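Researcher: Quick one. two chains, 610 residues in total.
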Amino acid sequence: MRSINLVNKKAKSWFSYELIKAKNNKLLLFMFSLGLFYYIIFHYIPMIGISIAFRNYKAGQSFFGGNWVGFKHFIDFFNDPYFFQLLRNTMLINVYALVFGFPMPIIFALLLNEIGKKLFKKFVQTISYLPHFISTVIISGMVINFLSSQTGIVNKILVILFDIDPIPFMTRSQYFRGIYTITNIWKSIGWNSIIYIAAIAGVDVSLYDAAKVDGVGRFGKMWHITLPSIKPTIIVLLILAIGHMMSVGAESIILIYNPTIYETADVISTYIYRRGLGVDGSPNYSFATAVGLFNSVVNFSLLYITNWICRKYSDSSLW
Amino acid sequence: MGKITRIKFINTVFHIFNYCLMSVICCTMLYPFLYMFMASISDPIQVMKNKIVLIPKGITFHAYKMIFTTLNIGQGFKNSTIYTVVGTAINLFFTSITAYAMARKELAFRRFFTKAITFTMFFGGGLIPSYILVKNLNMIDSIWALTIPGAISTWNLLVLRSFFSQIPESLMESAKIDGANEMHILYKIIFPLSLPALATIGLFYAVGHWNSFFSALIFLNSSEKYPLQLMIRYIAIEGGTSDVLQNFNDIIWFQNIRYSVMIVSTLPIIMIYPFVQKFFASGVMIGALKG
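Model:
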């Protein structure tokens, strides 16, 4: 009893302390209130809006309209003939991104670090950021037009080099994952390497000198000094990457996919987009929200579990 | 002696390989844009036959003329510019004032608010509830649907907050003694000291607005309000030019038009890029300082 009282007292004094702060700094609180309203309206109210996943919501109603139906929409989704396809595609695209995409900026940063000529290094770095600033629409436009079997440059080059028949890349489902992964690596390798390059620049130079005395070679230095030194950075970014594993954006995929390659290209977020906004057929808000909630919960759990593992087995973690 | 020459040899081979690889990477970053430009100014028959690889053939700028007259891409330019300017102004106002309040220790319930805001980075309502909200707020088919729901990017907010909290508190204390209130401190002390940070974040926001298409796709109904990106999606991805390109003489320009719209919309980015890329790279590091 006593301890509970103590906690209460402590909580109370904290609360009243904050209230006194509020009283003394009204203008500051007022300045903050704009942002606060923004977060309540555009972030927390949509979270309340998730409740429509458990109702039969119809267009025009408030977030509290419609009858409760419990987990009906979730069960519908699990029984959906597309469920496993969507889950598999979402997982695979992200596994590809993690296995092939995640190490690329690290390798790029390590190799770039070995370039002695400062001017050339700067030049490569600057050029490599460029794709990050090009819009998804343009990049998707390039992918589709370059891979076209009649007028695409990629097929042109393949024909010159290997003398094969042009491949209709965008209508064959087996190519989609590769195309998507390579495009993303192209887009983000330079930009994502910035943080690693900065981390490498912060490595203690005396370590390298000591290694030189011990006769450690170039690759030995990379493996035994540089990589361990930037490990905390790598781990934090890895946790973030895994935490966003299921949230592959609809934005980049809806631009390049088409019904002939849904088999590999359709992911949970694109399905939510089509079903929820009625791209094909009438919109089913409640069902799509349920699918979205399922996705968010899986995401959040992945983030939590990864962080827990990292905290247990290494010194670095997100929280 | 033998060992040393071997190490030297490996080093040389590695350097040659490394320089070659970096050059190849640079080429793959630049060639797509170069190719699109070459194809857009080449003779349409050559483009159709897929004959362009390294040099343009039969130079003509007719496709560029067509996209500004027949396809009226200028409208998209105008819309995108308006959305970018208005959107960025809203972003900077909301983000800076909120970041400032969060950077001050005097803010009541600061820890609680910071946690509640950070939480939104990892969990949210999702596409449909956000869409319904915008719909219920009667913002559909207006500029507000594109600018207000994303008024604050939580990442940028936290970056700016940590930048503001590095400004020595003694500056604010002495200003307070001189009778300045929080608004004065923000405008007279904080803003002048953090112009580079504000410029960087403003640029991030501006590029984001210029490049965005998804909110326009779901929130705008009238095609005369479409931003440039949505017009490009229509022309270069969906191939939706058949309603304006009626006769045969126009249709052969189809592929050239696709490449020219992509070049035209990328041009503003590529033109400002050399001048601002330094800001962008340093922007990433502002965030990294305090993690």
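The two ends of chain B are 48 Å apart (CA to CA).
Researcher: Thanks, that's what I needed.
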